[in-house]
Design a protein that fits this description.
The chain is α/β, with parallel strands linked by helices and 263 residues long. The termini are far apart. Strands 5, 6, 7, 8, 9, 10, 11 and 12 form an 8-stranded mixed β-sheet that branches. Strands 1-4 form a two-stranded parallel sheet. Helix 4 links the parallel strand 8 and strand 9. The chain is globular.
Length: 263
């Protein structure tokens, strides 16, 4: 009986040790790990896919979040689940452009993590110029399903779709491939994303980005209003904003941007 009792005591000690190890609570402060959304948006994020870079956004967050006293754990989720997890606090952090309606479930930082612009993409030898939406009318336009663009360009795309004069794809690289193959004349996407994909396809010299600005947005770190890890969201975001600013000032931001071809 003594050996059985001793065995139970040892098991209890081992169980307590495992709990402490998992939480990092060996008499000190509990390790604060933030769950961070990792999207599939090259070159900013690559959804944690093997054999691909981490992404500009992920690398930058990995640099600045520890300066606030937290560590981070990244995970990819489909869009609907990502929104649900931000609303219930299972996700602590994501990256959003600002919309007033989003303040109902997240708190926004003030320093942009990056800025992304939607621009028309054409072949390098093309004589196409775009100065207004009407200039798209005579062109074969490609569209990646799900892209929102600006309100005015989205309305234009929806009208072209209704008229059956739009070529739509569901794959991120398809518009670029169709352009290179001569199947479309033009498409609109994030210029940084297209330039990254063109570089990976050894086609950088075959395309050009036009100056016409469909829409440019700043993207910010947001914290779930239901986060169970971050008690003081404004204080945390203020610290993080300062860390991002330091990264921009000391050259770390610029070095990352150059490596990912971000303009």
């Amino acid at each position: 009986m003594q050996s059985i009792g001793k065995g139970f005591r040892l098991f209890g000690v081992f169980a307590i040790f495992m709990v402490l190890a998992a939480t990092g609570s060996f008499g000190g402060e509990k390790t604060r790990v933030l769950n961070v959304n990792e999207s599939d948006w090259p070159p900013y994020f690559f959804a944690g896919k093997p054999d691909l870079p981490q992404g500009f956004g992920k690398e930058l967050l990995t640099l600045v979040i520890p300066e606030t006293g937290y560590s981070c754990r990244f995970a990819f989720y489909p869009v609907k689940r990502m929104y649900a997890y931000l609303e219930n606090g299972k996700l602590d952090i994501s990256i959003f452009s600002y919309k007033k309606s989003r303040e109902s479930f997240v708190t926004f930082g003030k320093e942009p993590l990056f800025t992304s612009g939607y621009r028309p993409i054409v072949l390098a030898n093309s004589q196409i110029t775009i100065n207004s939406l009407k200039d798209f009318d005579s062109l074969r336009v490609g569209h990646l399903a799900g892209l929102k663009y600006s309100r005015s360009f989205l309305e234009y795309i929806e009208k072209r779709e209704q008229d059956n004069t739009l070529i739509t794809t569901t794959l991120g690289t398809s518009c670029l491939r169709m352009l290179l193959a001569g199947m479309i004349d033009i498409f609109v996407d994030s210029s940084d994303t297209v330039l990254w994909r063109a570089k990976e396809m050894d086609a950088l010299d075959s395309i050009k980005v036009l100056d016409f600005d469909i829409q440019t947005k700043a993207y910010f770190v947001v914290v779930s209003n239901q986060s169970k890890v971050i008690a003081d969201r404004p204080a945390f975001l203020n610290q993080l904003d300062q860390s991002i600013q330091r990264a921009k000032a000391d050259g770390r931001f610029g070095a990352l941007a150059k490596r990912y071809g971000i303009q």
